[in-house]
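Weekly structure sync - notes
Attendees: PM, LS, DV (DV joined late)
Agenda: review two folding runs queued last week.

Item 1: First target. Sequence and structure tokens pasted below for the record.
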Amino acid sequence: MIVLGISCYYHDSGVALVRDGQLVAAAEEERFNRKKHHNGFPTLAIAYCLGEAGITIDQVDHVVFYEKPLTKFNRMLETILAYWPLTYRPWLKAIPLWLGQRLRIGTEIQNNLGIDKDILYCQHHLSHAASAFLVSPFEEAAILTADGVGEWTTTAWGVGRGNQIEMHQEIRFPHSVGLLFSAITAYLGFRINDAEWKVMGLAPYGTPKYVDKFHDIVDIKDDGSIRLNLKYFVHAYSTDRTISDEWEKLFGQPQRPTETELNDFHRDIAHSGQKVVEEIMVKTARHIQQETGMKNICIAGGVGLNCVANWKILEEAGFDNIFIQPAAGDSGGALGAAFYVYNCALNNPREFTMTHALWGPEFDDASIKAALDRAGAAYTRIDDVEEMLDHTAQLIADAQVIGWFQDRLEFGPRALGARSIIADARNPKMKDIINAKVKFREAFRPFAPAVLREKAHEYFEMPEGMDAPFMLLVPKVRKEMHAVLPAITHQDGTGRVQTVTAEDNGLYYRLIKKFGEKSGVPVIINTSFNVRGEPIVCSPEDAYHTFVHTGIDALVIGHYVVTKKPEVVDYEAGMKRSVALEAGLKTAEIASIR
């Protein structure tokens, strides 16, 4: 039994292929076409998944889309009518698109795949719920989903038992914790649906000065349910703004123009807004725990990527265990839809637990060598794996920044040891070096630690043996380790931990262990192998291009090590290019920046 799940047309396009209850492959389209947050039909990702499974589309039994277009269209129409004539422009923009494509998504999918079999549909938040629970290690668990909006739902909770899911309560559009956080993101001059984690990164530098003002914006009940004060928002009827003039009057300053200087006001807004989102999520989770009595919780939806709120839930809501799969946003809807069909609709028992994120393409040494040769790269091959790991660990200890390209590509927005930039977490200068000369991004942006799971409790305030494989939890760094790990210790003394095991990421585990043997500290910096505005690298060509055009010192790719570059990196040009990429400029405009 083969099920293909598809998510597209709204946010990040993603695909997941399930065969006989096991995940075979999963990937986002952006990794292949190199367009960050691409939301079009995932042609290349589907081709990859089918190829990984060794099948053709005709061998797929069921194709399922991650939400219900007709229900979503109903919400669009009701909203347009409710806010008329303010919705005149959204009407002109949206209706042709819906009538021309989105009400025909089933036909679109059939035509793109060249099939005539029926297309199945799963509700948006049910796809999220399934993506969280059905691949979790729990036999039963509470489920919390939260994002901007699906069809009507913005937040929902329910219970999973065995291979079945029951959703119990929901909050509906226009009241949304996800859209609240997007509004904060936009007010701070960052791109929504792209830079919400910048708000999380900026928050520790501020104070909760504006929490009371945010309570004017959103009414939060004891059970976590919310009502937005809609005089501060325009998301119900605007296509180009999220906040109203009243929002700017309330805080006394206009929306920050993109790329302008961040000051204490912006830092305090980020801190206060993050605190309010945490309050909503913790109160909601606590209510769910009290209602269900469950000890396990699974979380999904874009707000599930707010790793600070996730840790607060684990600490304060009464649950013993938490699970968030790595693609908690819309691309993961494809994963949930596929497993919902296989487990819930077809009543098959659950047989799969997601313990790692490595579900994308892998490249053998022959492919890597061919790519490096085509690029004219100078490289050294190290055949012995232990020698290669020892050499890489020594490079890290020598304060080198490494592009690490091994194994299958990660599914979801985090690099987790397959397409990673790695460095020494003990070096107090490393954060500034990587932000300025490699990632070309804001200096406040933090980096995550990767640590051997059995050693994590020695460096972070977390239980011994606790799993945090997807970099979605933020415990405190132990006080005595702040000076030991300055490059990954956030302004507030926390760290976005990734625990690594030999079972799920063997080569990466051995590298960190080898570095620990050399340095006495089995912890390294792990950040995504990309520059600002670009997707994480997928292919050897992507990796070499990023190596050449950034301040990465060495590229360790398969058994090959590259340290020489054909030209000197122009860091100022790199910054301008990455800003242009993030701003979504056209390819020709970006290419003109050298």
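Item 2: Second target, run right after the first with the same settings.
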Amino acid sequence: MGGAACAWGGEDYLEATGYRALAAELGDGLPTGARVKVSQVEFGDGEYLPQGGAGTFAGSGAVFGGKTFSAKGGASGASGHAWAVGAHFYGANGDPELGRASLAPGVAAIEVYRVDSAGSAASWTGQAWLEPGSLRAPLVESGAVQNHSWISVGGSERAAADNAALRRFDFAIRRDGFLAVTGVNNGVSAVPSLMASAYNNIAVGLSSGGHSRGGVSAWLDGPGRQKPELVAPLDYTSFAAALVSSAAALLRQAADAQGGDAVKPETLKAILLAGATKEEFPGWSRRAGAPLDPVYGAGELEVGHAWHILAGRGQAANQASPRPDWAWARVALSAGGTADYVLRIPPGRVGAACSAVAAWNRVVSDVAPGSSFVMAVADLADYQLSLARLSGAGAAVVIDESLSAVDNVEHIYQRQLPSGTYRLRVSLARGGSVPVALAWRLSTVEHRPEVVLARAGGRDGLTCRGLVTGQAYVVQSSEDLIGWRAEEAFVAGGAEHRWSGSGGEGRRYYRLGATD
């Protein structure tokens, strides 16, 4: 078991992840993580605390002043790694040029656990929390966000123990309702067993791509599941995970104000993944059977996007009227059931980006509650996600699907969508009625194609450029700019279209318009 060395990049990651823009937009209304309790789990055969102490003690200095630490692994001196992780997670410093900065400087209560290589009674992986190999359930997590900036590579010889640990972890996430953020390893290596290979967490890598990839290992439950799900623009995965945890704490404060399903870990997970950006990665790709990019997952953390999705509030399914462009939902379906959400791109606009994520938990149950802890692992629910364009008659033409057979995340991402009415559908192909969270963002911009007029052989001709594939258009002409006549209606098969009119004398004006 081990953690990462301490370093950071020179990039203003607060700018890159949308935090500065969100802060400018919200001003004094910007969430800071205030009243959100968190946990930090650190590797340390020796020191493991962000600053030395024992029991419950006060933080100090410019970074940790005003914070309260609970040393859950016993008394310890300060760990440089834990200090840097804490600074990115909940530190009071707001300027990355001074070293490290958090998106949740208002977090004031932090429980800190240690992980040691022996798995001792004081270790989070021992009796201090996870309680492996016992008939006792994991301890209850009272915090809202739990950060793991440590890894255990694992191996087939540890398959039974690692699977049991991951099952206990997934059980506790569902039971206690906290969002778990776990780092993968630094360097291009296999995805570590602990704790990144769980189902109900968010595994985090680096925007540089210098991290574990290749899917969950063959000896673990659900081999081939894509990890990481999210990346952040820092130099080491320890700090990238901490930054995502700080974004989660910021969102959790805003979610607490909404209450209900907004605070569920699968809701926040779906929101963070749907908000992620791909523009930084020219090679980013996904397909129906593999919802996440094999290196960058859903993309780079963008806390401003995530906040706006959360602010759109939870939406009811199967409504005839369009839902907000940025919003979320949480439903529980029976096998064969569907939940639909209508989105609308008005004429004259184009869907610059449409990102949607469905996320749900693996169900690990205690089959002997009240007497001893005995785990039962249910088959993973098989939720699916699709995006269809609706015609005027209501017929649906599916334009994208996410149909992974192993992941508990589905993701659709489309750019340059034509104007029209769309149906975002989440469906349950098989499995029990475990709730699924759905989050989406639809960014629209004004559509202004270029039209070039030329005359040859006594005929007017138009060259239309910058068209949206699949968009319906109409070419119209007028002699007086008052009355207009349709010359040609067409559906763009690419970015350019040519039209040639009939001959004739006199002045004539032309215009091109997008239609549904």
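Discussion on item 2: Residues 450-515 form one domain.
Action: LS to circulate a short write-up before next sync.
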